[in-house]
Amino acid sequence: MEPDRPIYAQLIEKIQTRIVSGYYGCGERLPSVRELAADAAVNPNTMQKAFAELERSGLIVTQRTNGRIVTEDKELIDSVRCRLAQNHIDAFGRKMKELGFTKEQIFDLMDRRI
User: Fold this and answer.
1) Is 7-113 assigned to CATH 3.30.420.40?
2) Which of 20, 43, 76, 105 could form a disulfide with 101 if both were Cys (CB 3.0 to 4.6 A apart)?
């Protein structure tokens, strides 16, 4: 966990990552709040807050008989995937600039690593 970010925000990103990576597939039932809270070693209320936000975003849906499931909206999932990637790229770019690298040097390093 990152001490400078709220735990529920970190949980949201972790679950989003699992959804966009296919760990939790479209239409798949998610583990219960209690199960995920126990796995993450957090209070169930904190996990519930993360679930509520994911539900507001449309990424998960609550069904009365089936619990919470991942949306079947593949366009939404792709959109979240791209947004998460852009956030990581932005953070990476800021860190590299803090280290004194130019845009060209960053691209050169990336090209050699990949």
Assistant:
1) no
2) 105
pLDDT for position 66: 82
Closest listed residue to residue 60, CA positions, set 77, 45, 75: 77
Residue ranges per domain, the chain?
A: 7-113
Residues 6+ apart with CB under 8 A from 23: 17
Residue 89, Cβ neighbours under 10 Å: how many? 10
The span from the CA of 39 to the CA of 24, in Å, is 15
For residue 80, which amino acid is it?
Answer: V
**pTM for the full predicted model:** 0.85
- Given a contact cutoff of 8 angstroms between Cβ atoms, the answer to whether 1 and 7 are in contact is yes
Mean local confidence (pLDDT), 45-56: 96
**pLDDT at residue number 3:** 78
Q: Are 11 and 46 in contact (CB under 8 A)?
A: yes
If one counts every other C-beta atom within 10 angstroms of the C-beta of residue 73, the result is: 14
